[in-house]
Each structure stands twice: as structure tokens, then as C-alpha cells.
């Protein structure tokens, strides 16, 4: 196993699920090395958030 590490940058984007395909195309255009998609729901000071018609927001 190698003892060297490469420095990376972690970017977290929380957006409506309807934007998922556009965001993935953008990431591919920028040649990112990888991404993870996690469905999210929640509630806060602005009320309950269910996202778009799919029923949740997308956290990439």
C-alpha cells in the first residue's frame, strides 16, 4: 500500500431532485472523479420539505 495521498476537494450540493440530471451532466463536463447521490427529506424553520413530485430533495 502506498503512503502518499492526493489532496481533494469535497463539494456538497443540496438541491431539488428535478435538477439531478442537469447537475450530473455538469459534474461529468467538469471531469469530477466521482459523486454520491442521497435522497433527503426534512423539516425546519421554513416548514416541512418534501422536494418536488418525486417526494424528496437530492443531496449530491
Give a quick set of tags describing it.
1 helix; 60 residues; single chain; alpha+beta; flat; three-stranded antiparallel beta sheet
Order of strands side by side in the largest beta sheet? 1-5-2
Q: From the alpha carbons, calculate the radius of gyration and give it in angstroms.
A: 15 Å
Uncertain segments: none
Note the total helix count: 1
Order of helix and strand elements from N to C terminus: EHEEEE
Strand content: 25-35%
Query: What is the mean pLDDT?
Result: 79
Strand-pairing-aware structural class: alpha+beta
Shape: flat
What fraction, in percent, of the residue positions are helical? 10-25%
Oligomer: single chain
First-residue to last-residue Cα separation: 30 Å
Question: Helices and strands in order, then pairings?
Answer:
Layout: E1 14-16, H1 20-29, E2 38-40, E3 42-44, E4 47-49, E5 57-59
Antiparallel strand pairs: 1-5, 2-5, 3-4
What does this structure look like?
With 60 residues, this protein is an alpha+beta fold. The chain has one domain. The protein is built from one helix and five strands, in the order βαββββ. The strands form two sheets. A three-stranded antiparallel β-sheet has the order 1-5-2, with no helix packed on it. A two-stranded antiparallel sheet has the order 3-4. The longest helix is centred in the middle third of the chain and has 10 residues, at 20-29. It is flat. The mean pLDDT is 79.
Amino acid at each position: 500500500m502506498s503512503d502518499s495521498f492526493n489532496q481533494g476537494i469535497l463539494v456538497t450540493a443540496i438541491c431539488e431532485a428535478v435538477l439531478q440530471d442537469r447537475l450530473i451532466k455538469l459534474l461529468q463536463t467538469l471531469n469530477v472523479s466521482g459523486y454520491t447521490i442521497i435522497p433527503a427529506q426534512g423539516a425546519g424553520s421554513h416548514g416541512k420539505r418534501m422536494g418536488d413530485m418525486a417526494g424528496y430533495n437530492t443531496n449530491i
